[in-house]
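Input chain follows. Return structure tokens only.
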Amino acid sequence: MIKVKQFILTITFTVIFIICWFTNSVNSELVCGPSSYILKNMESRFGEKQIARGIDQETNMIFIITANTLGNWSLLVSPASNPRNLCVPITGRDWLQQPQISSGTAYDGSNLTIHFDEEGNFKVYWLDQINSKLMLLITGYDWQRFWEFDKSL
């Protein structure tokens, strides 16, 4: 049982590391903490609410998008095996929601885009501004929107 937990933790942190590596974030520190603490701080400090969520089909990690009415946003990541913790590998501005697509610009100028269908299947793409490369980061299921961001402006 211990080896299974070690394997899951290794996969989880590998995926988080890969996301951080691809994002070339201006702030190189990865912020992590208990889910309730991170979500409360996102709202109290930045005015960001949870607007969407889905599950990665390969790792079962939970992916959450938070945003505020100014268009600032964050991607939060949590392993499904430990939903009590969240990490924030990417933040940005200019969040936009349209039917079956959401996107935003990271602070380094790269772009995060999420395509999803009516069944909740989704794909997350990263257009790296530095290398001009388009990468498929995540393929998942159970994508749900909780807040129609654009209708609140």
